[in-house]
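This follows on from our talk about sequence and fold. Can you supply me with one protein entry, sequence and fold together? Could you add the entry underneath, on a fresh line?
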Amino acid sequence: MSLMGGAGYVIARKASEIGDRAQVSATLVGVPATAAVTSLPKLATTVAAVRLGALQLAVGGNTFDALFLIASDVAYREGSLYHAVLPQNYLWIVSALLMTGILIGGLILRQRRGPGRIGGESMLLLLIYAGSVAVQVLVAG
């Protein structure tokens, strides 16, 4: 556990350093880049679970990530983490809410096939995330 915490601290510090050197906002580095780096182990676990047919593990395991916000709120020393959110983070909050809604819709309205042999909701998630990154780059640039 302390190894994971230490790795998270190093990633956060390096992301901040990269943002400073590239002269871009912390949001541009922090959200897409840090999220991708820290999510890769979860991606490997989810893909392995799907290949083994443990679909409940793949879906259910990802819902646990929302609880990390509670731990982050507890660790934040200057009050509520939710009140410290900057306006440049609103894009990512709205994107996450929209993607969550699409995922719920995908669980309710099952689809056998979609574009590119993936579900239509997966395609929508990719488009929303790519669009959010593009908007963030345009706004920051």
